[in-house]
Amino acid sequence: MLSPQDQLTELVRTLETQHHVFATDPLLITEKLQGEDGKPMQKLQRRASRIDSNGAMAQVLGKIEGRIKGIMVVMSVVWCLSGFLGLFTLLQTNVVNFFYVLVCLLGFHTIMLVGWLLLTLVNRGKPSSNWFASFVSPSYLIRGKDDVTKAAVDLYERQLQHSGMRWYLGKFSHQLWLATLTGMLLAIIFLLVVRQYSFSWESTLLSDQALITLTQILGWLPSMVGFDVPDNASIVQSRLVTEAMSLSVARQWAGLLVGSLLLYGIVPRAIAWMFCALMFRRKKMRLDIKQPYYQKILNFWQRHVVDADDFKQAPAPIAPKATVSAGKKLVALLEYPSAQDNWWQSGVGDDLHDNSDIENFGIIDDREDMARLKTYLDHNPVQVLLGIHSKALPDRGTLRKLDQIASHAKDGLIVQLLNEASLSEDEADQEGAEVELASSDHKNVRDQQWQTALSARKIGLVNSHG
Fold first, then answer.
1. Residue 283's CB: how many other CB atoms inside 10 A?
2. pLDDT tens-digit map of 47-84
3. pLDDT 10s digits, 332-389
4. What is the DSSP letter of 164?
5. Among 373, 321, 381, CA closest to 351
6. Which band of pLDDT confidence, cut at 50, 70 and 90, is reported for residue 257?
7. Of 456, 318, 338, 337, which is closest to residue 399 (Cα–Cα)?
8. 384 DSSP β-pair partners
9. pLDDT at 308 over 80
10. Cβ–Cβ under 8 Å, residues 28 and 395
């Protein structure tokens, strides 16, 4: 799968091609990142994080990821319990047939491990069927009809179909087997601690010597790492045992049983798990920045002036000068409050002779405010003077409010930019000249953004005197 940063980047691409309205305008973020340093992939990831300023998209992706991992954890716990209970049920008699128990422990496991190895060699480089994708389909894990949820589900579906997922599925399969074997190991240790067993062996088809030789071969590797294993005398003595055997011989058989489960079961499966993990890391899905969407952004960031003498910068758009009508006025603030009570007097105070002709509508922020304002404008022919704080960002949501107000204002809409300092004079003195310079640069950039937006909409701008 993609990394969390790449997932967010790809989700932004999907939503932007669907004309989704983000928390922050992608165009403004893209323009700001043009002057920042960083590798292309880092800047694309940074861009996606800033566009998702409220964290809504990252939250949906994290929810899907968490539920997929939760299913895997629950399945591992269930497999571990099944292994524990299965072996606990098997070892309910005090005298157990050693080879019967060993085959129950490792027989099917060994067949499946060898089968996986053969299939891996045969299907090397070929795509395999993805049963896991249909089992944990994100559409089953999260419900939602909004654009973000739908796009996130589609993104995970595409990731689950990637060719590198075969190693992810292999790792998960080995994880379940490890959980089962671990449950068996815990059951064996628990039962050997609280009960005394006698171990025997017998066979109808195989000769006694064949079973003795098999026991010696089986015990070679456990004995190399320090496990007690039966010697020749103990092997002969354990044939067809029906009663309690000596504790020393029983401990040798118990050591061989635990050692076989570890060295012939858990260790090979753990090696297979690590191999799949390494292969999945090598074949991991990566973001394709060669797509036209990403290339367009990267080309914009790499754009520079070749010859400064021949380069002529296009003039920045300027909003038309506001014309104050003689009729009644409605004043309102967009999203942010103002430090001044009669803030409009700094802009159109000379054109107003009687404050009684002014309807102060307060702050326009949420949907209820917009609905109340539009209802008023539909029934009252007034010119709207909209005060916009220097903190306000001309993103899509804010500009949509501006367009709605302009369409309902029968006598027109004019805008006054409230250039109120975010720092007090005492705070500015403490921060120093560098903060003042940075604040001034930020103000100029934001003012030009509003000039461009108002120019495109032919909305008049009031020249503030304050």
1. 15
2. 999 999 888 999 999 988 888 889 889 999 999 999 99
3. 998 888 877 788 777 776 666 555 578 888 888 888 889 999 999 999 899 999 988 8
4. T
5. 321
6. very high
7. 456
8. 330, 413
9. no
10. yes
Contact 260, 267 (CB under 8 A): no
Could you report how far apart the first and last alpha carbons of the chain are, in Å? 55
For the chain, how big is the Rg over CA atoms in Å?
Answer: 37
Number of C-beta neighbours around residue 247 at 10 A: 10
pLDDT digits (tens, 9 = 90+) for 99-130: 999 999 999 999 999 999 998 888 765 555 45
Enumerate residues 6+ apart whose C-beta is below 8 A from 361: 330, 331, 332, 373, 376
Of 438, 396, 437, 391, the C-alpha closest to 418 is 391
Phi, psi of 284 (to 5 degrees): -60, 140
Q: How far apart are CA 320 and CA 454, in angstroms?
A: 8
Judge whether 164 and 284 are in contact, CB under 8 Å.
yes
Cross-strand partners of 329: 358, 383
> For residue 49, what are its two tokens?
């994080």
The string of pLDDT tens digits covering residues 233-243 is 888 888 888 78
In the DSSP assignment, the letter for residue 406 is H
Compute the residue count for the chain. Answer: 466
pLDDT for 174 equals: 95
Picking from 78, 13, 88, 107, the residue whose alpha carbon sits closest to that of residue 51 is 13
